[in-house]
UniProtKB/TrEMBL annotation:
The lineage of its organism: Bacteria, Bacillati, Bacillota, Bacilli, Bacillales. It comes from the Bacteria. This is DUF2187 family protein.
């Protein structure tokens, strides 16, 4: 009987964990793509950058040199990696390709 309760508790815990993981996933339409301008915090500073690579599963690579004050901020690097959910999209890039069936010739 105790073994059955333990199995049930483990299954419940696994189910709850899976639900939490699903909530944490960022929807594809909310992920930045190459060419998007995003805002985020880096070393306590508000920073903008343009996405240069979106091939990573959980993050994007961002070039911060688009900021007029980049040199004044004394950043260690020109590019950084930012996790999905840690940035906001300020502007969508113009080089997005719509892959929906409606736009196929």
């Amino acid at each position: 009987m105790a073994e059955d309760n333990m199995k049930e508790s483990l299954m419940d815990a696994a189910f709850v964990k899976k639900q939490e993981e699903e909530k944490e996933k960022i929807k594809e339409e909310n992920k930045a793509k190459v060419g998007d301008v995003i805002s985020f915090k880096k070393d306590g500073k508000n920073v903008d950058g343009v996405v240069t690579s979106a091939k990573l599963e959980n993050s994007v690579v961002v070039d911060m040199t688009i900021m007029d004050n980049f040199n004044e901020l004394n950043m260690d690097y020109e590019k950084t990696v930012i996790g999905h959910g840690k940035y906001t999209i300020k502007e969508r890039g113009s080089n997005h390709v719509d892959t929906t069936e409606d736009n196929q010739p």
